[in-house]
């Protein structure tokens, strides 16, 4: 286990210098509506370098929407999101912040990577090729260099011997580990996980959580939307409880998960627990 943390640590950018108290991610009064429906109602939310934040909350409460906004997949209606102190990737237009064209490049610039519930691997590419894709196509990394990195990433997630497998020949847990390796290949400074184990058979959840745990211990800055309460308690520095587009409460895992101060949080935990 220690060696996995070491292997991962060598592959991720150093955490931002502690000299700065600046949060790495700053969301201030973020509003987002779909049609008439307010999905995010003035979210303010910061993440410090190296911090691991678990986001929990009922289905439909806006958790995925928040991650998509941070990852420049959609525009925001009001408020601002800064990554590494910059608004990179957004332009202000009629008072709105709109993602600029070339979003993949914008994401690369700000250093955000996302892992989805449904893995989203390219079905026609091998595990190795999936990991090489973004470095080669978006970042212009020479193939040999991208392949060397991809092999080290596969080793770090325990899949060295699966380099040439197509996704359809991998288990869900293996596919998700490839997806994490692929997300790491662009050297992100912030990793977003949207229910990364929700689509997995129970016996495959652990292998994915182990990789995420190693990443957390190696110092990666992470936001993890999850229903794995035990994992959140153990790995997160902070737990944020979302409901109906607002942050209901947040704090240390022991406080939020074991003695929440809000009734809504208690109710949610009793239902999923
Ligand atoms: P969560 O991840 O917490 O389950 P989401 O962020 O996915 O919640 O969704 C929040 C709300 O926004 C839901 O009511 C959902 O139906 C709605 N929603 C999400 N994406 C869209 C979209 N592209 N168009 C319209 N409504 C959406
Ligand atoms: Mg969701």
Keywords:
six-stranded mixed beta sheet; three-stranded antiparallel beta sheet; 10 helices; globular; binds adenosine-5'-diphosphate; transport; ATP binding; ATP-binding; nucleotide-binding
Order of helices and strands: HEEEHEEEHEHHHEHEHEEHH
Biggest sheet record? 6 strands, mixed
Number of strands: 11
- Uncertain runs are none
Mean pLDDT: 89
Overall geometry: globular
Distance between the termini: 28 Å
Query: In what range is the share of β-strand residues?
Result: 15-25%
User: What is the oligomer described by this structure?
Assistant: single chain
Structural class: alpha/beta
- Give the helix tally: 10
Bound molecules: adenosine-5'-diphosphate, magnesium ion
Subunit structure: The complex is composed of two ATP-binding proteins (GltL), two transmembrane proteins (GltJ and GltK) and a solute-binding protein (GltI).
Protein name: Glutamate/aspartate import permease protein GltK
Domain ABC transporter: 25-269
Keywords: Amino-acid transport, ATP-binding, Cell membrane, Membrane, Nucleotide-binding, Transmembrane, Transmembrane helix, Transport
